[in-house]
Amino acid sequence: MSVEAITIILVLITFAIYTAIGWWSRVKDTSSFYVAGQNVPTVANGAAIAADWMSAASFISMAGLVAFLGYDGTIYLMGWTGGYVLLALLLAPYLRKFGKFTVPDFIGDRFYSNGARSVAAIATIFISLTYISGQMRGVGIVFSRYLQVDIVVGVLIGMAIVGFFALLGGMKGVTWTQAVQYFVIIIAFLIPAVAISLQLTGNPIPQLALTTSDIVDRLGQIQIDLGMTEYMAPPFTNLSMLNVFMVTLALMAGTAGLPHVIVRFYTVKSVRAARWSAVWAIIFIGLLYLTAPAVGAFAKYNLIDTIADKPIEEVQSIEWVSKWETTGLLQIDDQNGDGVINFTGGEDNEVVIDGDIIVLSTPEVANLAPFIIALVAAGGLAAALSTASGLLITMTSAVSHDIYYRIFNKSASEAQRLRVGRITLLVALAVAAYVGINPPGFAGEVVALAFGLGGAASLFPVILLGIFDKRMNKEGAVAGIITGLSFTLIMIGGNSFPPVDYWNRRTNS
């Protein structure tokens, strides 16, 4: 059976499970729709948080960043993981104790201001739309490669599935679906990691194989021979230590301030449960993040070994090469006409690889079993859809709860609020599909933009000061959110991102 056929079967099975959970979790009250009735078990909530967090950027792009940036990629590992420590210690317990539904809810009531509530709701919508475009790009990539359909069709299929269980079950349906999706994600990431580690080093534990074998030395020597930068070259050559610290801090604050992550801590019964949810989430997330550096190194070694200095006819006859070339995410061109693929660090480089395909293509490059290849595709879809569903609920609650109910119609009945919530979700689905079809960049870049806009620049400082500083007032909250959003958008729009020279090194290393 072909890889595509197995992938279709696995995707249909997982989609059927998600749909069944959505039907089982259907809700009739706003508490269940917005915060899952605040009775989600701690471990299940930790798994849901992890799935919400392990988006297309984490599953698809993280290992790609490490593969192409080497040491410099650790800045993302440190920042994104450290953000959960901030969240667990500084925000989650206090926000749960406050007892509201959303981040704008907290900001509006803390500062006794509907103006602050409105600005926070608008910021939440803007951040979520930016973030969701990266997830939908991931869905499009998986569908375009493994199901051989147009990216537009893939995005629409993904949005239809997410819309079904989100419309029926709200946050309750999303939470239980995400808990299942976490296990799909982590199994799909760990199985190929173990298989490739065993294949290349004889050690089935990727983390140990990376540190105790000579695979990194071999990769470094290959890169030097090809004219690239040595893989384990001194880190952060383009950044001062102050910049490294500030970028890491910004990523930590961005993680801690993302509204779709924060809202997960409203779904549990108590403050203690919120703390333990964060602990479980860190454990679950750590399984992937501690494996990503090994996957990145193994993937790059296999990729270079398969393509570099090989005859063009031999390379183009490889099935996975031709299939990825049709997506436009892999480009091989014998520019100098010598009949050999030059995969170098100079101007004569003839291979252009999109970082988003590293994890998805790795099982094929390593000649693993078709089932494993299909499993990775299902994992990539689960990662993107789990985060997309959380973002949709976050946008929906910002409009229907924080703006419609809390500002314009405080006497709205339960049925009216649910109806507005579901109508808002349908509109959000349509907008999310559009930005997924027309994303502003690759998955990792778009998600990092959402981090800068969301946590580090706008919501995180206001939430933090709102919890710990009694002197903080509504004028400061409104000014802080507006200034942070505007300044960050202008700065990122006028400069390349990420801060390291990723684009050049992506194509030339």
Automatic annotation (TrEMBL):
Keywords: Membrane, Transmembrane, Transmembrane helix, Transport. One of its GO terms (molecular function) is transmembrane transporter activity. It holds the Pfam family SSF. The chain crosses the membrane at residues 6-25, 46-69, 75-95, 116-134, 146-168, 180-200, 244-266, 278-299, 371-399, 420-437, 443-465, 477-497. One of its GO terms (cellular component) is plasma membrane. Signal peptide: none annotated. Its main location: membrane. InterPro entries: Na/Glc_symporter_sf, Na/solute_symporter, Na/solute_symporter_VC_2705, Sodium:Solute_Symporter. PROSITE patterns: NA_SOLUT_SYMP_3. It is found in: Membrane. It is a multi-pass membrane protein. Belongs to the sodium:solute symporter (SSF) (TC 2.A.21) family. This is Acetate permease ActP. It comes from Gracilibacillus boraciitolerans JCM 21714. The lineage of its organism: Bacteria, Bacillati, Bacillota, Bacilli, Bacillales.
